Amino acid sequence: MNPPDRIPVCLLTGFLGAGKTTLLNSLLKQPAMIGTGVIINEYGSVGIDHHLVESAPEDTALIADGCICCTARGEIAEALLSLSQRMQERAQTALQRVIIETTGLAEPWPILMQILRTPELAERFTFDSVVTLVDALNGGDTLAAHDIAVQQITAADRLLITKTDLVSAADVDALQAQLTAMNPDAEVSALTPGSAQPSLLFTGGRHDPSSPQFRPGALLAQADTLRFVPASAHSLRPAGSPPPREQDIQTFSLILDQPMLPGRFYGWLEFLRTLCGPTLLRVKGIVNIDGRPGPTVIHGVQKAFHMPTELPAWPDDDHRTRLVFITRGYGQEIVTDTLTHLRACAAGSP
């Protein structure tokens, strides 16, 4: 399929009890969701949630007896291809979009990696968005206690605050500010009962650089005025030092004035990904690669990186590289120190 013809996939995630099934039922009743396939993952040997989702049985697939990101990892490909085949055989409705509802204990990045790196899936499907639900009643306590919830939030393209009718407006505002600080690249919305719309899950390609609907402006607006500065006395995390707190999230951006040589830039990015591991929660940016007429868009969630996409032209007169990072613990020091070394090596090259 050509990129515009691939079937968009939304990953719907959120910690236990965030309201994923309730939201899904509300949306599936709407006419705009005709042609939607649903994959539901549950943790445990007996599936329940798929019986609670009000969707036609042939439009629903269950992955039970394990988290979709670990023991059931290989089953997501089979489920997606099976859904596509079953709905293609029905004369009434072809598969137009897919929602993957994960267990509340799922890490998003292995699911992203599987679709991005499985050729038969990449040919037919495209990731449209990661949507994470956050419970307004318990969200703050959950973030403080569970690292999985942090990973789900920092991986999101959109954050939806649920159960807002159970707390005060001030509590909702405070949680919204906390989520924005953790993931400034995501759109944050507070839901009231019955207010959800299908557009909250599917963007129409606005996040996909290969789509005609892609709009880089929102990404560029997130890059603040923090500029790259030479590393100070701090260095990489000392051996044997205690790990950072799970909720110790940093969000920052780097703005580089000079074009980057492709070999050095991608080598640095791969080194950074290997060095930081799970502390590199997310990186997204628009990069000026030396010799290219337009910018290169990169997007990664932990170890799952999309293939870089080259845009035919710059969206405006600002041709600087802008990178937005979400890291945990010592991530910012590693980013700045390794980039200092990269630039020093480049300056010393003949």
Automatic annotation (TrEMBL):
<dbReference type="InterPro" id="IPR027417">
    <property type="entry name" value="P-loop_NTPase"/>
</dbReference>
<keyword id="KW-0143">Chaperone</keyword>
<dbReference type="GO" id="GO:0016787">
    <property type="term" value="F:hydrolase activity"/>
</dbReference>
<comment type="function">
    <text>Zinc chaperone that directly transfers zinc cofactor to target proteins, thereby activating them. Zinc is transferred from the CXCC motif in the GTPase domain to the zinc binding site in target proteins in a process requiring GTP hydrolysis.</text>
</comment>
<comment type="similarity">
    <text>Belongs to the SIMIBI class G3E GTPase family. ZNG1 subfamily.</text>
</comment>
<feature type="domain" description="CobW C-terminal">
    <location>
        <begin position="249"/>
        <end position="343"/>
    </location>
</feature>
<dbReference type="InterPro" id="IPR003495">
    <property type="entry name" value="CobW/HypB/UreG_nucleotide-bd"/>
</dbReference>
<dbReference type="InterPro" id="IPR036627">
    <property type="entry name" value="CobW-likC_sf"/>
</dbReference>
<keyword id="KW-0547">Nucleotide-binding</keyword>
<keyword id="KW-0378">Hydrolase</keyword>
<dbReference type="InterPro" id="IPR011629">
    <property type="entry name" value="CobW-like_C"/>
</dbReference>
<dbReference type="Pfam" id="PF07683">
    <property type="entry name" value="CobW_C"/>
</dbReference>
<dbReference type="GO" id="GO:0000166">
    <property type="term" value="F:nucleotide binding"/>
</dbReference>
<dbReference type="InterPro" id="IPR051316">
    <property type="entry name" value="Zinc-reg_GTPase_activator"/>
</dbReference>
<dbReference type="Pfam" id="PF02492">
    <property type="entry name" value="cobW"/>
</dbReference>
<dbReference type="GO" id="GO:0005737">
    <property type="term" value="C:cytoplasm"/>
</dbReference>
<protein>
    <submittedName>
        <fullName>GTPase, G3E family</fullName>
    </submittedName>
</protein>
